[in-house]
Structure formats: C-alpha cells, structure tokens
Amino acid sequence: MRSARIRSRIFKVAAGVSAVSPLFVLLFLAIVLINDAWPAFRFQGFSFYSGITWNMGNMYANNTIIHNGVQGSPGATFGILPFIVGTLASSLIAIIIAVPISLLSAFALVYKVPPSLVKWISPIVELLAGIPSVVYGLWGILVLAPAIANLIGPWLSHLGHFIPYLAGPVGSGFGLLTSGIVLAVMIIPIITATSRDLLMQVPHLPIEGARALGMTSFESVRHVAMPLARRGIIGAVILGWGRALGETMAVLMVSGNAMNYLPANLYSPISTMASTIASLLDSAMTDYTMLSIHALALIAVTLLLISMITNLFARLLVQVGRRDIGTEV
Amino acid sequence: MTNDTVALDDSVHLTESELLELEAVLTGGIHMQKNAEIAKETVIRVENLSAYFGHKQVLNHLQLEIKDKEITALIGPSGCGKTTFLRTLNRMSHTVPGFRHEGTVNVLGLDVSLVRDVESFRRAVGMLFQRPNPFPMSILDNMTLALRLFGVSKKERIEIAKAKLDEVGLYDDLKDRLNQSPFSLSGGQQQRLCLARALAVQPKVLLLDEPASALDPKSTKLLEDLFVRLAEHMTIVIVTHNLAQAKRIAKRTAFMEAGEIVEYELTDKLFYHPSDPRTRVYVEEQIG
Question: Which of A75, A103, B102, B143 could hold A57 in an S-S bridge, CB 3.0 to 4.6 Å?
Fold first, then answer.
C-alpha cells in the first residue's frame, strides 16, 4: 500500500514537471538569448533590422569604438535585412512547392493506394523525414544546382517577361530557388506523414455520406475530410514551415552565402538567418569585443520571434476559419 | 392483408398504381393480386449474387426482386450480410478493398458491376446511414454541397434545400439557423437533415442502413412516417434490427441468415406464417 502511494506521488511529480517543462525550456532559451543579444541591440538599434550591411569591423585594430555604451571593433555595423528576406523567401518557396505535393500524397496514401502498397510506402515517407539535412544539401550541390543553372533556370527565365523575379541572370545555380527546392524536398515527408495520420483519423461516416451522394473521392476528401482535418493540417504545414525557417546546413550548402545584398530575382544568392549564425560563428569568436557574438545572438532571438509569429498567425487563421463555417449566402 | 386495409384508411395518399393494386385485391382475391404485383415495376433485380471480402464469402447466391414504390425490409442477425448486400446496391461495397461479387445486381435497369459513371448512379440511389453523418459545414451547405458540385445554380439549389428540409419537417425549426453548424442539432434532427440531404439530389431509390438505431422512439416514429410517405414515389430498402419497425413500415421483408436469404415474403406472412423454420425461430426469439 505504502509503496503504491509513493509511486503514485512520484508519478504525479514527474508528470507535473514534464507538463510544464516546454514552458521552462522556452523561457530559459529566451532569457539566455535575450541577455546575450541585448548589447548588440543597444549598439545597433532598429537599424539592425533595416540595414543591409553586415560588417564585424576591423578585429585587428586596437582602437575599439564605443557606441551607446557598447564596445565594438571599428567599422562594425550589423544589418540583417538580407538574412530575414532570404529566410522568409526560401521558406515561402519551399511551402508553395511542398504543400500541394504533400497533401496530394497524403490523400493518395489514405484513400487511393492499396493497403498492401501503403505498407511499403508509409515507412519510406518516415525514413525520408529522418535523413540528415547534410545529405539533402549534398544532393542540392551535386544535382539540383547544376540542373537549375543549366536547365530549369534558363527555361524559367523565359517566363520572366510575364512573371516578376523569374527573369534575370541564372547564375551558378546556388541561390534562392535552389534553397527553396531543397527545403521543399526536406519538408515534404514531414507534412505528408503528419497529414496522412490526420486524414486517417477523420471519421469515415461523413466521407461515406459524401460518396453515397454521388461525389467523387476527390470531392469528398476536398470538401468533407479536409475541413475536418484542417486545423491539424495547418498545424502540419506550420511544422514544415518551422523546419524550413530553421534549417541550417542544407541551406548553407546551396544558398550561395550572399552578404550585404538583397535578392534581386529567383536565382540570386542568399543567406538565411540560421545559416548565417552557423557560418559566421567561427569568425565572430575572434572578435574580442564580443559584439559580433552578441549580434549573432540577436539573429537567433529574431529567428525565434519570427517562428513564434508565423505560428501564432497560422493559429489565428484557423480560428477565423472556424468561426465562419457557411459558404452559401 | 393488414397493410392494405391500413392503406385504405389513408387512401388520400394512394398513387394510381397502388389504387389499381388495391382494386385487384378487393375484387379478384389473391390470384388477381399476383397479377397486379407483376404489373408493378421491378426496380432492383438480384440474381445469384455471391460476394466476398478477400477469401471470406459474405453473401451466398442471393435471389431477390424489389418492386417500385414499396418499402422492403432486410432483417436478420448481426453479421448475416444485410448491410453488405444493401451497400452492394449502390456500389458502396465496391469501395472496400478486397470486395468482389458474382452474379448480377440490376438496379434501375443498370448492372451495378458495369456502371461506369458511378457518381450519377449514386445520385439515383440515395443512402442513409446508421448514425447521422452531417458534413462539417453549415446546415445549408450540407444540403447544397452536392448540388453545387453537380452544377446546379445557386438560386435553384437553395430552393431545393429549403423544399427538402420542409419535406422532412425541419424547415420551420431551422429556418433561422441555416448558417449554423449541424452538430448542435439533436440526433433525430441530424438524421432527418441527412435524409433531406440525400433527397436533395432526387434519388429514385433510397437505401436505409439501420437509420433509426441510434435514435429515441419519438425521432424513430418521425422518420418511419417520413419513409412511408416517401415510398409513395420512390423505392425504399431498409436494413433493420428492429422487427417491429419492419412490421410497421415494410410491405415485404427478407429474412437473411449467414449470407443467404432464408425467406422473402409479404411482411405479414413472414412474421405470422413463416414457411421456413429458421425464420420462425428468429422471429419468435426476437419478439419473445
């Protein structure tokens, strides 16, 4: 009896700790990052977000400058607008490519492919989701970038007369489009697997009702199953988007590592926030004023904020969608 | 002949063919009645139907003819294949992987295994399920979605929606909340909404799969009255566990057991003078 009571107590405490731990992890992360980033914000102010020049200054100079009470190398200026644009643009391209493909393959896996085949395909989808990003990056370098430089890019640029951002020099193949496609390939399995599980949980009866009314299987899924799973599917898309926003290695390998330069077209080299943190960390460590490290921490804070805002925004979208359920009238 | 005398009291609702039949019964007795039965159009003709899920046989050489403008009930113990049979009639069984059938099932003059345009076929053969299954959209959208997809104009489909809601007795209660979710309605109201939704695409045959099994007696009565009225201009096949329900509304009843039709007769005869001992045992056990 007594040991059972003790065990129940332990279970309660453990469950309680686990339940609140996400909150504490987020708080801890935010506090550490903000604390680390604060000097950079004092040094640079809001031009951190509007500036397009990133310069860590002359680290070998022995005359450090002091601006707003923060010490930095002479010539240091930190503007991350190109990284923000690069991050948002590449993840947007990824989402635009990935969402229709993922939803269609989830639809096919749940409603169309015979179960004996699904048994083989489903684990492969999960396997794809687990492949390290460096592998995708290597594929991007070896296959995708040359294909874009020599094949897809020239073809797409013909459309540039009608559609903005498609024209222009295609360049080396390392840039925005390549990053977006690599990211899309990486998040397709995530969105597919999640929305497949969601669609499988949709009650069967309304769909049967729709089929019995004479709707095609696509119509019944589009109009009956999708609305039932919509909240979850938007969640799945956010999950994929979050992955695309934060992806570091694969993007670093194919983005072209542009600095101090806003992308002019679909093929421009870019940098994302995550890949910048990774690629500049080494040199920032040599800045003995530590200001460069603080600036990288501020990028991390910004990335965290952007992830949270996109998440909140998407949740809001779902809420609005739920309130107004009628389409007639 | 209880059914016929009931019909006589209610003669305002009789259609021409039923009047003819009635006349035949009254003047010519059983022999004439048989002729009148033949005169009635056969809507569903099942010959030698055997069906399988994978290797498991669920229907065994069914033989059945269902006449127009009648309610036909399918009764029998759970797992006897009634629902599979019903769902074969509108090709819903065919959506289940591993399903196949032998023999011919002819519905509205079409062989179901040869139907190419399944969607149009299913519009003609409506179905109501065991539990209400409203779509996750407003009440009005529930009614108009299929019509919208079939290209019916907005004005027309809203008119149809209102008329059909009225036909099932829901319009007066719901006319101010057509844009609200159907999930706040009672189970009985939801089921009548689903019936109205099925009727909106103008089916000629209505398949009912234990439509009242999840409902209270009052809602059940409302639905049964509706079915009787609908049978004046359409063919209804109902699967039911409720023998009293079959007795109340069905002209004919088929008793199924282990994938076979044991007996198919006028309802009264099946219940009061079953010719097969298996039917007698089942009916007596169920009614007690």
Answer: A75
